[in-house]
Amino acid sequence: MRSAKPSPAPEGRLIKLSEAARHLGCHIETLRLRVRRGELAVRRGAHGAYYLTSTTLAELRPPRPFRSRVFMPESLEWSWQLLENQLPAEGRSRQDALGLIARVRENPELDRPLYRLLSVRRLRAAGLRSSEIALQVGISTRQVRRLARQNLLAGIARALMREQARKRARLVREARGVVADIQRQLAATGFQRHRRLPYWPFAAVPPGHPGLAFKKVWPEDAETIRYLRHAGLSEEQIEAIKLAGIGADELNELVVQGLRQSPK
User: Fold this and answer.
1) CATH topology of domain 14-59
2) Strands 43-44 and 14-16, how do they pair?
3) CA dist., res. 227 & res. 107, Å (int)
4) Model confidence over 166-224: pLDDT tens digits?
5) 238: CB partners within 8 A, 6+ apart
6) What is the value of pTM for the model shown?
């Protein structure tokens, strides 16, 4: 007859992590951080809950509370220089990044997400704790930890793309005004856009009334640009057409006739 194996010695009852936090007088997130860093042995229960044994709890020392240091924003301005050590040593990407950092530092509203990322990274490099950085930047400590894990160069690259997109959108808005002025000048000379009858049952124009046969084009080929210059269009008008586009029939009219004077 085989003898039964000895059962392992009991380690004590399992205690939920939230109960352990109340017992120690700390926040549960403090213990979660210890778990993530591998400093606290726990067991996973149902729904991902953390449990630890009473023996482990008895060995835990309550975290010592610390008082957050208070800094004046002016006393931390030097920390902006620490960001330069986290950028590429040389090259255009470094110059672009330094220029963007200078603009955002002067006006944080240009790109508030990037300003938070830069602030967290520079203050972390200056030796501030997460709670102290949160007070300086005006965000939660959880956001501070999340931003501290982000890639600085990737964040700057995304911000540069956003800046370029805003710049292009502004240029397109200005170009649309120039194109609208060209269209008004064409209409004043008697030019009429091509029209066609709607062929779908739910058209946006009344039945029997032709709608605009509008097809927008963005001329880029050198031959069309040369024709537009010969037709008398200025470089500003040509660039506006290239950015905002214009109707295909209107472009043909400009190539053939140019901007004629309206009849009086």
Assistant:
1) Multidrug-efflux Transporter Regulator; Chain: A; Domain 2 (1.10.1660)
2) unpaired
3) 44
4) 999 999 999 999 999 998 998 888 888 777 665 555 555 555 555 566 678 898 889 99
5) 225, 228, 229
6) 0.61
